[in-house]
Amino acid sequence: MKDMFIKDILGSNRPAIVQIDASAIILDAVALLTRHKIGVLLVVSDESVQGILSERDIIRALSVSGQNALHERVSSIMTAKVEYCSVDDSIDHALKKMTSIHCRHMPVKDGDGNTTTIISIRDVANGKIVELEQLKDKLLEFIQG
What we know:
Elements: H1 6-9, E1 19-21, H2 26-36, E2 40-45, E3 48-54, H3 55-65, E4 85-86, H4 91-100, E5 105-109, E6 115-120, H5 121-144
Parallel strand pairs: 1-2, 4-5
Antiparallel strand pairs: 2-3, 5-6
Helix pairs in contact: 4-5
């Protein structure tokens, strides 16, 4: 059985990364998240990644500032330290990294260093399930001779 890698769990029909400018307001971010039915946005400024904004970031801001948070800048509540994984990372590596930094979404870089997609902990968990099912099948095959 071979280890599974991030590239193995990326389907060919993955949605494009949805970006928002760091100077946009949270209300604009909420509209984008809703329109695209996603849970995270890549925050950019001058085509450079500045951070990542999740639904959880927005909920935290709302719990602190109430509706006023909707008019704050995305840059004021985003997670500025973006952690990445590579298409060549194992799903075990991604799972450990996401767990250790307590994140549910992580941008993925290709071999050229370009951010190509964002994976969720669900993507990684589903990949792990496939990997474990393959292991189970191999073990049953071995036991049954």
